[in-house]
Design a protein that fits this description.
Elements lengths: L4 E9 L2 E6 L3 E6 L14 E7 L2 E7 H4 L12 E5 L9 E5 L1 E9 L20 E5 L2 E5 L2 H12 L1
Parallel strand pairs: 2-10, 5-7
Antiparallel strand pairs: 1-2, 1-8, 3-6, 4-5, 6-7, 9-10
């Protein structure tokens, strides 16, 4: 079986499953409530954390996508991403649960089923069906650029 594969990391927000390109993920941390609030930031910015001496802003993916808030659990995680492969562009994204890393053939990524915006996300890279569920692929570079432009 030939073809180009994409490696994705999936995560859950409520009953829905989403994924990022795993090559953009730098770290996965358990949520420990150690986020320092930053005054005068948008509602989706939870604050900052210290990761190995680097100050990393953390955004709430539920808030970014206009989903109702949900109580944090032992599964709540912060995914540290670097969309531009630079240390200074690292960003934390809090999700309900990190699910798995998996590969998908690029030809199996179908056009997205969402036609309208979900908060700051204007569109998805596509949708893939994996183990009887639909997983919506999020373009991290677009999300981070939206966050940064709205923060200015």
């Amino acid at each position: 079986m030939e073809g180009n594969f994409k490696t994705l990391i999936s995560f859950g927000l409520g009953e829905q499953t989403f994924a990022f390109d795993s090559l953009k993920v730098r770290n996965i941390l358990p949520y420990e409530g150690n986020i320092t609030k930053v005054p005068n930031t948008r509602s989706y910015i939870l604050g900052v954390i210290n990761l190995h001496g680097n100050i990393i802003p953390v955004a709430d993916m539920r808030n970014i996508m206009d989903l109702d808030d949900q109580e944090r659990t032992k599964d709540t995680s912060i995914i540290i991403v670097s969309p531009e492969d630079k240390l200074e562009s690292q960003f934390g994204i809090m999700v309900d649960v990190v699910k798995e890393v998996f590969e998908v053939q690029e030809e199996n990524i179908k056009p997205t089923v969402f036609q309208n915006n979900m908060g700051l996300i204007e569109s998805f890279e596509g949708t893939v069906q994996e183990k009887d569920e639909f997983i919506h692929l999020i373009d991290l570079i677009h999300v981070v650029s939206q966050i940064e432009s709205k923060n200015k």
